[in-house]
Amino acid sequence: MADKSVVKDGLKYTIDHEWVKEEGSNVRIGITDHAQLEMTEIVFVELPKVGKRYQRGEVIGQVESVKTVASIYTPVGGEVVEANQELENMTQFINESPYDKGWIAVIRVDDPSSLVGLMDAAAYRKVLNGG
């Protein structure tokens, strides 16, 4: 059965269901529509701290739903320059708008070449559909 999740073109994706939007030397990240659908209703988000540095693949926060808790991994190394503080009171943004209002953090990228290994929308759709 084909996955019904929305996969937005123009973004990069990870195997762990995070999305990445390039914004100059920064990237905006969040969890994908597939991830939020699997988790169901999001009730709590632990955001990374602005100014903190992370290595690629490190846990930068968590998303908790009525069903489960999932870690958010950074697909790039760098410094958090912004966190979506609105999510502290409006966790439903992740369910309602995972690619727009539901973003998690903005990271200043240490090594732009780390974006090379990420999937484009077509490759991510194949993963979701078992390919």
Strand content: 25-35%
SSE order: EEEHEEEEEHEH
What is the topology, as strand order, of the major beta sheet? 1-2-3-9-8-5
The CATH C-level class name: Mainly Beta
The CATH topology name reads: OB fold (Dihydrolipoamide Acetyltransferase, E2P)
SS summary, helix count: 3
Q: What does the model show?
A:
With 131 residues, the protein is α+β, with helices and mostly antiparallel strands. It has a single domain, classed as OB fold (Dihydrolipoamide Acetyltransferase, E2P) (Beta Barrel). It has 3 helices and 9 strands, in the order βββαβββββαβα. A hairpin with a 3-residue loop joins strand 6 (59-65) and strand 7 (69-73). The longest helix has 8 residues, at 121-128.
Features:
131 residues; alpha+beta; OB fold (Dihydrolipoamide Acetyltransferase, E2P); 6-stranded antiparallel sheet; 3-stranded antiparallel sheet; 3 helices; globular
Element layout with pairings:
Elements: E1 12-13, E2 18-23, E3 26-31, H1 33-39, E4 42-46, E5 53-54, E6 59-65, E7 69-73, E8 78-83, H2 92-96, E9 105-109, H3 121-128
Antiparallel strand pairs: 1-2, 2-3, 3-9, 4-6, 5-8, 6-7, 8-9
